[in-house]
């Protein structure tokens, strides 16, 4: 999906999402996690998340390389927005136990909330 379409979706949907979840996290776009962390353009790797929340910066990073539809952008915004209002210490404590990404209560909550993505749907056209 072209970066301008992603920006359009974020500009229209995210204020509503942030208001709903009472979040003040900012959104920042990057091609992928490897470029963001290294600062090197065209850096790549094997695994790249759709998005992530940075607790220290209070930022949601959207990785454009994985955004192929309006649905994916909105789901990613919701998922990370939910994390932005969760308790960081408890989030970390859950991972210090035997929990995995798929059994972590905060991840389960964020995935559950993603199912509300159609509330924020703009009906943009996906062009891959």
Question: Please, could you describe this protein's structure?
Answer:
The chain is mainly alpha-helical and 128 residues long. Helix content is 46%, strand content 11%. The chain has a 3-stranded mixed β-sheet with strand order 1-3-2. The mean pLDDT is 90.
What is Rg?
15 Å
Helix run count? 5
How many strands in all?
A: 3
| Biggest sheet record | 3 strands, mixed
Percentage of β-strand residues: 5-15%
Apparent shape:
globular
Order of helices and strands: HEHEEHHH
Q: How are strands sequenced across the largest beta sheet?
A: 1-3-2
In whole angstroms, the N-to-C terminal distance is: 5 Å
User: Which spans of ≥5 residues are poorly predicted at pLDDT below 50?
Assistant: none
Approximately how much helix is present in the residues? Answer: 40-55%
Structural class: mainly alpha
| pLDDT averaged over residues | 90
How would you briefly describe this protein structure?
It contains five helices and three strands. A three-stranded mixed beta sheet has the order 1-3-2.
Q: Which helices and strands appear, and what pairs or packs with what?
A:
Elements: H1 3-21, E1 26-30, H2 33-38, E2 51-54, E3 59-63, H3 70-84, H4 88-96, H5 105-114
Parallel strand pairs: 1-3
Antiparallel strand pairs: 2-3
Helix pairs in contact: 1-3, 3-5
